[in-house]
Amino acid sequence: MLISSVLKTIDPGMTCFTRISLPLRKNFSVESTRALLSLQSNEKKLRAQAQSKGRFLIYHNKRLKPLMSMGQPVWKSYEEIKPYINHDLEELRPFVLLSVEQNESISFAASTLSLSDKYVQNDSEHYTDLRASMFTIQDRNEAAIVTKGWSLLKWHKKTRYCGYCGSSELIRSLDGHKIDCTKCSEIFYPPTYPVGIVLITNDKNNKILLVNLHRHPPSLFSCVAGFTDVGETMESCVKREAEEEAGVEIRHIEYVKSQHWPFPTGSLMMGFKAQAVSEHFEIQPDEVKEARWFDIQEICNALDNHSECGFLLPPSGTIARTLIENWIYQVSNK
Fold first, then answer.
1. What is the per-residue pLDDT across 139-185, written as a single tens digit (0 to 9) for each?
2. Residues 6+ apart with CB under 8 A from 185
3. Residue 5: what pLDDT?
4. Which residues contact 316 (CB under 8 A, 6 or more apart)?
5. 111-150 as b/e, with b when 16 or more CB fall inside 10 Å?
6. Cα angle 257-263-266, degrees, rounded to a multiple of 5
7. What is the pLDDT averaged over residues 182-205?
8. Per-residue pLDDT tens for 242-298?
9. Of 105-109, 131-135, 251-255, 295-299, which gets the smallest average pLDDT?
10. 65 vs 249: CA distance, rounded Å
11. Which domains does the chain have, with CATH numbers?
């Protein structure tokens, strides 16, 4: 496939390497941010706004699958779900506040655990696995909201007892972002786990090193990544992961961008680009099945879904895919 054809599919607004790279977010402003803060601190106002302006995304309680239709999230008004929550917003706890848009609509996530058994979705609506949902949602900001809801509901589902004293006497804030223990007064907030992910290039910047992990689907090659250890910076994290997984020493580590990733329970993916000191690598066989250097033509063939290329790349919407597309854009526009 011609590299120029691949470039047409890449959004240049998302491909610039900068010290701090923040994509423009639709329906986002200082006013909506302040409105969100105001709702989180005022439960009476939040309750009233949820009833008048709220839109709710329902997740099936068993595996927290979001309600989807034709690959897009299905948002319900308060009036639509009101008959199934005993006419009392308190019965929806835990439901979680997700965002306030410029059009003044307010997004919430709620589990079917909060609804009666009489609630049944329409024929065109289905509870869909979150991993599959993430790659069918057309609006990336909407996808981020859906993953945020999943992460917060998962936190509530796992937090049934106080982690300090073991009590089950917990009070959940109406916005879903805080849990108080009434016995020992400990306060819990939803955690975020930092993960470093790095695209490794050779010294000529004409090849990238990707790995296929044992837990990956067969033939799927992606960037080196891993959780940050206590006491590490993000740069030292990706350096260590490159050495552990691929036996490669890296330098010239540059921050690119970040992405919230819901798995396993809410990670913050911090994306980097770095240069390998040499092209020699030695995989860690317990975790890595295979590692390979790929040139730009091989990557473009894979992006064009050529079956004969023999490998797959991370799907669109993942930060790994964005890092790879960033590299293509940079190399092709020198």
1. 888 899 999 999 999 999 999 999 999 999 999 998 999 999 999 99
2. none
3. 59
4. 135
5. bbbbbeeeeebeeeeebbebeebbeebeebebbbbbbbbb
6. 70
7. 97
8. 999 999 999 999 999 999 999 887 899 999 999 999 999 999 999 999 999 999 999
9. 131-135
10. 40
11. 30-158 (3.90.79), 160-190 (no CATH), 192-333 (3.90.79.10)
Enter the pTM of the model. 0.85
pLDDT, tens digit, 9 for 90 and up, residues 42-51: 988 998 998 8
Judged against a pLDDT cut of 70, whether residue 65 lies above it is answered with yes
3-state secondary structure the chain: CCHHHHHCCCCHHHCCCCCCCCCCCCCCCHHHHHHHHHHHCCHHHHHHHHHHHEEEEEEECCCCEEEEECCEECEEEHHHHHHHCCCCHHHHCCEEEEEECCCCCEEEEEEHHHCCCCCCCCCCCEECCHHHHHCCCCCHHHHHHHHHHHHHHHHHHHCCCCCCCCCCCEEECCCCCCEEECCCCCEECCCCEEEEEEEEECCCCCEEEEEEECCCCCCECECEEEECCCCCCHHHHHHHHHHHHHCCCEEEEEEEEEEEECCCCCEEEEEEEEEECCCCCCCCCCCEEEEEEEEHHHHHHHHCCCHHHCCECCCCCCHHHHHHHHHHHHHHCC
- Residues 40 and 37: their CA atoms lie apart, in Å, by 5
